[in-house]
Amino acid sequence: MNLFQSWKPDTRDYCLELDSLDPVSDHCRMVFLIATCEFPFDVARSLELALFRTYAVPRISALLRSTGELTDRTRKRYDDTDLLLSELIEHGYDSPQGQAAIANINRQHASYPIRNEDYLYVLSTFIFEPVRWLERFGHRTMSEKERLAWFIFWRAIGMRMGIRDIPAEYAALEHFNLSYEAERFRFAPSNRDIAERTTDLLLGFFLPSPLFRLGRPALHALLDQPLLTALGIPGQPDWLCRLFTRALRLRGRIASTLPLRRRPVLRTRIRRPAYPDGYCIHDLGPQQAGGLDCSG
Known about the structure:
The two termini are 19 Å apart. The chain has helices spanning 14-20, 27-38, 40-55, 58-67, 69-72, 74-91, 96-109, 116-137, 144-160, 170-184, 189-204, 212-220, 225-231, 238-257; strands spanning 279-280, 294-295. The protein has one domain (21-258). 63% of the residues lie in helices and 1% in strands. Strands 1-2 form a two-stranded antiparallel ribbon. By secondary structure, the protein is mainly α.
């Protein structure tokens, strides 16, 4: 299904469409509307912060550091991940673009001895971190239908990645997510190394490098204490945490008063320094495989 072709300038009320869709049969369309129309800022920021949760697990961060992708080519690694996920969200996982993205993801991971529970945890962060972000900062929370559609979408992707034992129920996967963090979040130098590189990358989207020193506490104020401890990052003062929490909640309230978007926000259309002439889905990532599915 071409999720974008049904967007018409004279029928722009995606809120009404979301209410009318079925979360089981229409979950791909619902995820498209949630991520590109209703909550594009929130979904993008929450998935960025979800990266930090994966870094809090020493065996995951050690593997990421060993590849050199997040230490030596941080921006390219970020763009590759963002583009692969965005292809899935914007086109659906069974579209030609979605199938190419999943094949690329599977190829990149095939040469590493990654445990199934680690795959499952990373997948769970894609589900729960956007939901939790919207509960904290969104102009509204996801509805029960939207949460179910979001869960079914990412579960289907996990199954196509060959991840085993994915719970069939939202609550069961959330229980796994919380239990895994309680057991696996532990400090290691590799956690901090990867987190520091990613922090500077994200700040660079909004601030000049001389201001990174001021920006780091703001970003860290959004992270919970168990995560900060595992990353080796000092906790921030309560007043700073309250300040940035209130600022993001204010942004959410302001967003609720704005007119509906006239066009979806498509992250695959953003110009990337690593890909000034566009990209081929098959070529994203460290290993160049070639291919014909080109975007941009």
